[in-house]
Write a structure and sequence with these properties.
Blueprint: H1 4-11, E1 23-26, E2 32-36, H2 41-61, E3 75-82, E4 97-103, E5 114-118, E6 124-129, H3 141-146, H4 159-179, E7 190-193, H5 199-206, E8 210-213, H6 219-225, E9 231-234, H7 242-247, E10 253-256, H8 266-272, E11 275-278, H9 284-299, H10 302-310, E12 328-332, H11 336-347, E13 351-355, H12 361-366, E14 370-371, H13 375-381, E15 384-387, H14 401-405, E16 412-415, H15 424-433, E17 438-441, H16 457-481, H17 484-487, E18 492-500, H18 509-520, H19 536-542, E19 546-552, E20 563-571, H20 578-582, E21 605-611, E22 614-620, E23 623-627, E24 632-639, H21 644-654, E25 659-666, E26 676-679, E27 682-683, E28 692-693, E29 695-702, H22 708-715, E30 720-727
Parallel strand pairs: 7-8, 7-9, 9-10, 10-11, 12-13, 12-15, 13-14, 15-16, 16-17, 18-19
Antiparallel strand pairs: 1-2, 1-3, 3-4, 4-5, 5-6, 18-20, 20-21, 21-22, 22-23, 24-29, 24-30, 25-29, 26-27, 26-28
Protein name: D-3-phosphoglycerate dehydrogenase
Domain D-isomer specific 2-hydroxyacid dehydrogenase NAD-binding: 292-453
Region (Disordered): 572-598
């Protein structure tokens, strides 16, 4: 009996050293003719030929030499049987029987030999006809003439012919195996690996399997080829869905190179009879070490410090962080990874607590881990919380808003287990609100994260000039409308209205961020001001800024430009000073000498637009204007009467300041005369005959900064109501 490997070894030229040690040559009915222990394949072929020739001669010499049982056969068979079993591969495969079959039918002298490979149950596995011309004369003429129709023809295999036939059989057999395999299966199981694995692991697999590495396959491509494989080895990226498993018609095993198998549809695999295995020891140390790395990085603000340094800053004292020695590490899930983390953290001098209903108390005690009875108790104790649970139905969203709210404001959360155990939205909200101090996250619900830009490049190109405008408007408000006697005492709400085509923008986050940055820049040091599209909302919340955004198309269409932004300030109803301030009227006895008098909050309005990518201010307070907010600017509110421009020009000239641009804006009356009552050089009941005077606004662009002495001297001039210097 021969298996496939033994057959190939027997007849190939390079297998002499592995030849089976003993062979038996028999008649078709099992009569033993001879047994031999050949030294090599050539020796075996020669001995087989000699035995066959000797048997033929014996039959020719005596008609009684043939066993009577043999006469009932119409064919002659030569059987080679091996008693060696150590050449079988690990998995049981059918032993193969090599049969050289031919015959002499009644009244015919033709000979049609064929080679058949059978399984142990007699089922043909492979069959091939052998041309008579390749064998030569099979039976001598003397033997042929003495045979009757019922006498078996004797196939004489001389050495030369045996070698030729053996070569033909080997070539044909190996070709068939290569193309079709045995019963449609490959000689070695085929394994598909669509992800990167260790070369050492590949070397082990290649010893007994046919391994195909196909990295970078799409889901559709994987579906197309999976039908030809017996096994699939994946890491975490490949999703073994029910449809993929069903497409694997030959698939017997799915192996996960790692611990978790949440990327494999286990129910579908079970229904299809596909075995799912993992390698739980594979990344225990790696996961534990990565947890410690994230713990230290979060404790020492490594990520924030890296970004700060790349941004050209040196915030050493701000980013010192905390020591972990003496801090409590809460471990949610005390399995193999959790215990390994505990031992490492213990070496750092940390206190260890854990919650795990299935934890081994002895192992926990050996690692100096205190088992707490509830998760809530763990949350309350932990300075650092690390998660090491599987991702199953009961652990999905295990850490959400309610759980995070139970933690200390100094707690830092770590997750290197599975995405989805921590509610990522709730975690972000907790970080922004200061509910917890930090987080180190290695896994996400969607991996790899889908591209989710806050704003698309083409959208930002459209908004860019308005980003500049909003930053200028915020800075202008702080410098012009916020003297210390109002801004520091009153809580103000800002309403931003995006008008015209700007109202159709998909996102206004860049505009919001620019406004907050501009609003704070005049009262913040450059080193402490790092406001961008990502953190603007958090900064506004920390500074107590209340900013509302709205959209409108109505007004801009009447103005002659396609888009504008209007900023309005109003008192927050929650402000304790709101009701009192709304009743306050302008009653300063001498407004000309009160440059920083209180202003009505409701009059603090700025409108801007963009023309040819250049920002313009079209309204400032009650005044309609048009100027580019750039550089050092002097803004004077005065009575609209002759001589005021000359007074300002003279003062600036005396100080050596050159005027580069100038705009005079009348007050926006809305059809009504608006002004203050003039009298004794100012407004009030003592004004001369209660006459009303119009106001105007001078906006001057200067070539240099103006010191406070010049500003105060201008305020002291008659008819000058307010003077501010802004740098934009």
């Amino acid at each position: 009996m021969l298996n496939a490997r033994a057959l190939s070894e027997l007849l190939s030229k390079n297998s002499d050293e592995r030849l089976c040690k003993r062979w038996y040559i028999m008649t078709p009915n099992g009569t033993l003719l001879a047994h031999t222990q050949p030294t090599d394949a050539g020796d075996l072929r020669q001995q087989v030929a000699m035995v066959a020739l000797s048997w033929q001669e014996q039959q020719q010499a005596s008609s009684t030499g043939l066993d009577q049982a043999n006469r009932k056969y119409d064919l002659c068979t030569l059987v080679l049987e091996s008693d060696v079993h150590n050449i079988l591969v690990r998995k049981i495969q059918p032993q193969l029987l090599l049969v050289l079959e031919g015959g002499v039918p009644p009244r015919k002298r033709s000979f049609e030999p064929r080679m058949i490979v059978e399984g142990p149950d007699g089922e043909p596995l492979y069959e091939s006809r052998i041309a008579e011309s390749s064998l030569g004369t099979s039976v001598s003429s003397k033997a042929e003439s003495s045979m009757s129709a019922t006498t078996a023809g004797v196939l004489v295999l001389h050495k030369k012919k045996l070698d030729a036939m053996a070569a033909a059989i080997v070539a044909d057999f190996e070709h068939t195996v290569a193309v079709n395999g045995h019963n449609g299966h490959s000689a070695r199981p085929k394994v598909l690996i669509p992800e990167k694995v260790s070369p050492d692991g590949l070397a082990l697999l290649n010893e007994s399997l046919e391994v195909h590495e196909r990295q970078g396959l799409s889901a559709d491509e994987l579906h197309e080829i999976i039908g030809g494989y017996d096994a699939l080895i994946v890491r975490s990226e490949t999703k073994c869905t029910a449809s993929l498993l069903a497409a694997g018609k030959k698939l017997r095993v799915v192996a996960r190179a790692g611990v978790g198998v949440d990327n494999v549809d286990l129910n579908a695999a079970t229904k299809l009879g596909i075995i799912v295995v993992n390698s739980p020891q594979g990344n225990i140390n790696a996961a534990a070490e990565h947890t410690i790395a994230l713990l230290m990085a979060v404790a020492r603000n490594v990520g924030a410090a890296s970004l700060s340094l790349k941004g050209g800053k040196w915030e050493r004292s701000k980013l010192v962080g905390i020591e972990v020695k003496g801090k409590t590490l809460g471990i949610l899930g005390l399995g193999k990874v959790g215990l390994t983390v505990a031992r490492a953290a213990g070496g750092l001098g940390m206190k260890l607590s854990a919650f795990d209903p299935y934890a081994n108390p002895a192992l926990a005690a050996a690692a100096n881990v205190e088992i707490v009875p509830t998760m809530d108790e763990l949350f309350e104790q932990a300075d650092f919380l690390t998660i090491h649970t599987p991702m199953i139905a009961s652990t999905k969203g295990l850490i959400g808003s309610a759980e995070l709210s139970k933690m200390k404001p100094t707690t830092r959360v770590l997750n290197v287990a599975r995405g989805g155990i921590v509610d990522e939205s709730a975690l972000l909200e907790a970080l922004e609100a200061g509910t917890i101090a930090g987080a180190g996250i290695d896994v996400f619900t969607s991996e790899p994260p889908k591209p989710a830009p806050i704003i698309l490049p083409e959208e930002y190109r459209t908004l860019r000039p308005f980003v500049t405008l909003l930053e200028k408007m915020g800075s202008l408000y702080t410098q012009h409308f916020s003297p210390s006697n109002t801004a520091s005492q009153l809580r103000t709400t800002f309403d931003l209205t995006y008008e015209g085509s700007l109202a159709s923008a998909n996102t206004t986050k860049p505009l919001f961020a620019a406004f907050v940055k501009g609003l704070l820049s005049p009262i913040s040091s450059p080193d402490s001001l790092n406001i961008n599209i990502v953190n603007a909302e958090l900064v506004a919340k920390e500074r107590g800024l209340l900013v509302n955004e709205s959209r409108s198309r109505d007004r801009v269409e009447q103005e002659g430009y396609s888009a504008s932004v209007t900023l309005r300030a109003r008192l927050d109803p929650r402000s304790s000073s709101a009701s009192r301030t709304r009743r306050t009227e302008i009653s300063t006895a001498n407004p000309a000498s009160a440059g920083e008098r209180r202003k009505k909050i409701e009059e603090q309005v700025i409108t801007g637009f963009v023309s040819h990518n250049t920002p313009y201010i079209s309204r400032l307070g009650r005044f309609t204007t048009s100027f580019v907010p750039e550089g050092t600017m002097l803004i004077c509110r005065n009575y609209d009467e002759p001589g005021k421009i000359g007074v300002v020009g003279a003062k600036l000239g005396k100080a050596g300041v050159n005027i580069r641009s100038m705009t005079v804006a009348p007050i926006e009356t809305g059809g009504e005369e608006v002004g203050v009552t003039a009298g004794d050089g100012g407004a009030g009941e003592g004004g001369a005959e209660g006459a009303k005077q119009r106001e105007a606004l001078m906006i001057l662009g200067l070539d240099r900064a103006v010191d406070d002495v010049v500003r105060k001297s201008l305020i002291g001039e008659e008819g000058m109501l307010e003077v501010s210097v802004v740098v934009l």
